[in-house]
């Protein structure tokens, strides 16, 4: 028995059949596609095995800083049958890359080139070679690079086309430098696309609305369309919106957020045209009030997602009150996502009613709703056991008593945002020891009463954390960060920064180095304002945290060395990374030394 056990232990992984190795490679590739490039360096047989086309049906390299036409050509030489390609946010991707994809992947079904600099030239190559494409996600970076005319041609050439998503290259900023012109020709192509299911366009400009005359005569958008998004379309009015949705009984998702020209009358008409609506986003629509939301509740009783968040500028405010929210609670019993951010008219009454009537609620955002308190949160804890995401930033009346109860009862909770809840303290997330909390994201930024003991209780219970922010939490010291490092090995995002005049001397190399040794999956680390960190720590982090993409850090230098600080930091990173950039973002004097802050953008393990 002992000898057979020894024989098993002596079995070499190289003795496994290729089919078994391929299954192992599949699992590793599903976690991180870059793992295939690491595997091919092990030995010659694995080098050849990683070229197997079955591993490359999905070519996925989002955010790859070094992916260019040459690298992409080599990758695609191994997978001529690739059906899905995601090279979004790759700064070197251009029309040449799209032409290579179009030539090598004739069976392409899905292409995501969001935040890539492509133009009509690349789209024409797709229209010529990839007739089976079903889904296209792309970004425009000026008003002439991508035109409606070429997109119309692509849609007509591809009869199976189902999903078109046109985004702005800086969508996350919500500050657009240019717009996309939707022409009559593009509308006509969409109308006549037999399989169209989804059309999304950000910050669009409508050339004219003559095509909508045809819509009203029965030649409307395809009856099967299920998702329509016209976010930040300033030209959108009630008339054009109703023309888009006329006779679209199958429409389930509608996003008209940031559309100032849409008001209660337009949304009320949509509720009559589209009774099967399940998803509605009217964020920052200043002319939408309780009247429209009540109509939606009455006519669209299958509603699952509702965002009525108010405007942030010139001051955070929203029009929706408890009146509409109670109506939603009465009619839309399947509601799973509610966002009433900045709606000061929403109080414990409205949220308590939602929690009582909608047991499937999984996502709740009440950020900035100053009237929300523990009263409604305790109802959420009791009734919404499927809750997965809770956002309560700036809700100053919510305390630890209700949040601890939510953590105990809502065991599916993964995401909680508690920024600027200044009175929060004594969070311990105590639970039944037989239940493992699923929490992966906790934001406690500027919760100034949070201390090391609180951090200890949280990370002991939430060992699956991938994101934690303690920015501005001046009571957290090395001890708290050590608790984090020892209990949360899956962490990818850590923020311990202090901005403005704030700073901390309580975070030092002692704890940060432990973090670098224990949390090897880090992709983002912010230590600006932590003046106890030294150059040795920077070197160790860049060496150990191989997936790190951004590192913000503050360092002290002798005044005589201050002018060479950028070169010094570059030298620390250069030892372990071949591609990176260092930018100094702040400089001052501190206790007779030159105090400087840096933002480091580092290439993770790519190609």
From TrEMBL:
SUPFAM superfamilies: F-box domain, RNI-like. InterPro entries: F-box-like_dom_sf, F-box_dom, FBXL15_LRR, Leu-rich_rpt, Leu-rich_rpt_Cys-con_subtyp, LRR_dom_sf. Coiled coil: none annotated. The keyword Calcium does not apply. Residues 10-59 form the F-box domain. One of its GO terms (cellular component) is SCF ubiquitin ligase complex. GO terms for biological process: SCF-dependent proteasomal ubiquitin-dependent protein catabolic process. Keywords: Ubl conjugation pathway. PANTHER family: F-BOX DOMAIN-CONTAINING PROTEIN, PARTNER OF PAIRED, ISOFORM B-RELATED. This is F-box domain-containing protein. It comes from Nematostella vectensis (Starlet sea anemone).
